[in-house]
Amino acid sequence: MSMDDTVEEDDFIEEDEILLGNSVEDEDEILLGNSVEDEDEILLGNSVEDEAFIEEDEILLQNAVHCPDCDDLMGHIILREKPKGQGTDYLLKCEECSKVHTVNIRPPPVVNIPFILTEGPSSITRVVEIDGDEILELEDVFQEDDKLWSINQIEMKDGRYVKHCEASLIVRASALRCDMVRVKLTMTSGEDSSSDVLTVPADKTFTAGNLMDLEGHTWRIRAIHMGHARTLRGTVEARDIKRMYLHEPPVPEYFAPRTPRERRQAWKEGKLGFNPNPVLPKEIIKKGVAPTNKRKTKRPRN
């Protein structure tokens, strides 16, 4: 072995010792120090940087347009802004590739769509101005003549009826009033029946079996018909009601005893005049009886 090899090996050993010393003592100190103090600083720093990154994204999104060189939505710097007609021309510079180009912003054309507005048995036609690029869908609600209307039919220029369409392709549409609805009534008094219509808010509820006052008369809601089902006790919103059936509630005279036997029974129960010792009705007596569930034991035979 040569002298040069010996020197290199000694240097190598010293280098290992230095590394080992750092790994045993200094490395632990560095790790412990970073875990206690620097880690918090790093986390706080990251949170601040993340917030700044989010804010930067929000700013970029405000001026994000399509860049012809990047072929993607990129953030831009507005160099010049010039009003033109009802729109504006912008001279922009891409923040990514520094491409300078012009973007022309123009409002969409306005189209006139005839709407057939139906309120109960009557219908009128109104021409409504709508942006040409707006998408209309069935059951969309809009305001006209201080009333709310819901779209129920859309007809395109080619004659097709669709569920949604761009306004520029619509030839006509129809809508129904949705803030107030007409509830059809069938009122029965004895053997006579008559029809009427009640105009109420769409969210008003009716409960079958309840009493309601109508034009000075009291009626009981016998049933509520909803088209696909009928309820005798449920609660239904007015917008879902097809027809309500009202019956005249029975008057107190209806329950008055008619035969001598009924009158004697009524007097016994204290319903007619004073009775110091009234007899309770059978249904009350039966309700008050507490039946025993004990089974009788058979007596042993001798």
Structure notes:
The protein is 25% helix and 41% strand. With 302 residues, the protein is α+β, with helices and mostly antiparallel strands. The chain has four domains: 61-105; 110-178, Ubiquitin-like (UB roll) (Roll); 181-249; 253-288, no CATH class. The protein starts with a helix and ends in a 14-residue tail after the last helix.
Write a concise synopsis of the structure shown.
This protein is 25% helix and 41% strand. With 302 residues, the chain is of the alpha+beta class. The strands form five sheets. Strands 12, 13, 15, 16, 17 and 19 form a six-stranded mixed sheet that branches. The chain has a five-stranded mixed sheet with strand order 6-5-11-9-8, with no helix packed on it. Strands 1-2-3-4 form a four-stranded antiparallel sheet.
Task: Draw up the topology in text.
Blueprint: H1 3-62, E1 64-67, E2 72-84, E3 87-94, E4 100-105, E5 110-119, E6 122-131, E7 135-137, E8 141-144, E9 147-156, E10 164-166, E11 170-177, E12 180-189, E13 192-201, E14 205-207, E15 211-214, E16 217-225, E17 230-231, E18 235-237, E19 243-247, H2 260-268, H3 282-288
Parallel strand pairs: 5-11, 12-19
Antiparallel strand pairs: 1-2, 2-3, 3-4, 5-6, 7-10, 8-9, 9-11, 12-13, 14-18, 15-16, 16-17, 16-19
